[in-house]
Amino acid sequence: MSDQTPDFDVAIIGGGPAGTTVATLLRKYNPGLSVLILEKEKFPREHVGESQLPLVSHILAEMGVWEKVEAANFPIKLGVSYTWGQVNEPWEFDFFPAEEFTDEPRPASYAGQRQHTAFQVERAEYDNILLRHAEEMGATVREETSVKEVLREDDTITGLKLNTDETITARHYVDASGHVGLLRRAMGVESEAPKELRNVAFWDYWDNAKWKVEIGVGGTRVYVRSLPFGWIWFIPLGPSRASVGLICPSDYYKERGISPRELYDEALELQPDIKALLADAKSELGNDKVHSIKNWSHLSSRLVGENWWLCGESAGFADPILAAGMTLAHSSARETAYSILDIESDPGDMKWVKHRYDTKNRDNINQHIRFAKYWYASNGQFTDLQDHCTSIAKEAGLKLSPKDAWRWLSQGGFATEFAGTASLGSFSLNSGRHLVDRFLGGEQKMKIDGNNVFKLNIRGAKEDVIGDLHDGKIVRVPCYRRGNSVLPLAGQYGELVEMLKQTSDIDKILAYLNSKISGAVAAGSESLSISSYMQTLDAMMIQGWVTGKLDKRKPQIQIGSITGRLIRSEHAAKDALTKAKGSIKFN
């Protein structure tokens, strides 16, 4: 590389959610960094991908832009209404219980119930808010400026040649160019597209569409309705505007031999719920056109190089059945920013930082892709899904029966998003359990169910560290590592480890949790729940970090289906403890 001083510390290709997240967090935590965003289009501009998950709201709050997004009055997403597979009866998959969602004036603050909800956004307006915010944070934004050529020497980028005939240099380069993957392609990084998710999407926007359900002030659900050859989404974007799209296999579209609009209209005719919502609506594109995209689910073989990073859709993307696209974009971009900040603070640990970034984010994207495969597999015979889950568990070094493999995957196999909390991709374990119930046709027991004595099992484990992101720093968190399984010694995992070192009795564990939650309630916090700790304990048992048995002389624990609702009052917390005196059951 040249010895000349680079033009910028960080050059970001792409001004969408991923690029602006990187830029904003870099400037927030290290205002001394010079950051450039290169965007080929002029904002605002339309873009698909309007539906979010609650994790995005957390990142928006950290970026300092949540209030601006909330002020845009986008619909609040509480969850999704599905019909799926061979059952036509609708069912709900909510992030926050709709019956507990209370009316409150908007714009509201990022607190209480709003910490558990998401947005459904007009991307033209949403992306413009984020780009302007990054600019206000001190990033240099150049719109209508594209990269003509990526200059490189081996695995090092030496500059970006622009459509203005300038050459821009930087110390770090970030590919947030979306599915184009401009740096990814230039650096020869391969990307695998799973054959099971080689689909096409056709969509349009509709004016004067109806909302099926309105919950509180601005609250609603996205609608997903399955078809014999795919599924339809209906996403409310405003008081009367909606995004409506069709997903179907690429091969099916080719075999039909009809135009995208004809197939799209045929799908709408086959789905009475969606058809009714559009009865008085008008298509924005007319009768012969639709927007389209194909084969977008993919995972890059690596996400980092000598001086470059892939984030957002250039790194990978999972099928939209779970609406994880924007979550993956924001979360991987947050990881990119933190990684650069860490290297800027202390380059001595650069190798560990890069390895962590690559493995963690590839695992996270891959887990969402796998989860999408499960959804599609569940549209057919469950025996196929069972076999698929067994093979995935085997890859993780676990020999499980088909049913146990699905339980492991849905309740703990995806626990990598946060260092201290068990989760299923971007969903809570409780949400995953509701999916298990739905796909298996009945309530499924938790692994800890029927046991009341639990012991920590760290035999054969080695001490290691993982990284957790806090206030602009990658905090080194101690952990145990055994094969592909990791047990973080932080958050709820860490608390349970310390608890299990002191006692193995569930009644004493619950007494401790009750005391902790009562204290949190007294301090005005509403974020703790006994059920979340029990889910984490269940994940630890599934992964083999905890063993359980039944001592008939002591009270039993029967978890059943946990709703994950928050323990909101001291009375509720005491009620939970009272149940520990007899047969304990959380519903």
Descriptive overview:
The chain is of the alpha+beta class. It has three domains: 1-74 and 120-191 and 297-380, FAD/NAD(P)-binding domain, CATH 3.50.50.60; 76-119 and 199-294, D-Amino Acid Oxidase, Chain A, domain 2, CATH 3.30.9; 381-587, no CATH class. It contains 17 helices and 29 strands. Strands 3, 4, 5, 12, 13, 14, 15, 16 and 17 form a nine-stranded mixed sheet that branches. The termini are far apart.
Summarize the structure.
By secondary structure, the protein is an alpha+beta fold. Strand 28, helix 17 (570-579) and strand 29 form a beta-alpha-beta unit.
Please give a handful of descriptors for the protein shown.
single chain, 587 residues, alpha+beta, FAD/NAD(P)-binding domain, D-Amino Acid Oxidase, Chain A, domain 2, 3 domains, nine-stranded mixed beta sheet, five-stranded parallel beta sheet, 29 strands
CATH topology title of the largest domain: FAD/NAD(P)-binding domain
Rg from Cα: 24 Å
Please identify, by name, the CATH architecture of the largest domain: 3-Layer(bba) Sandwich
Number of helices: 17
Structural class: alpha+beta
Give the low-pLDDT segments.
410-417, 560-587
Shape field: globular
Q: Can you identify the CATH class of the largest domain?
A: Alpha Beta
Please bin the fraction of helical residues: 25-40%
What number of structural domains do the residues give? 3
How is the biggest beta sheet arranged?
Answer: 9 strands, mixed
Query: Would you identify the CATH H-level superfamily of the largest domain?
Result: FAD/NAD(P)-binding domain
Beta content comes to 15-25%
First CA to last CA: what distance? 61 Å
Mean pLDDT over the residues: 83
Q: Using DSSP, what is the number of strands? A: 29
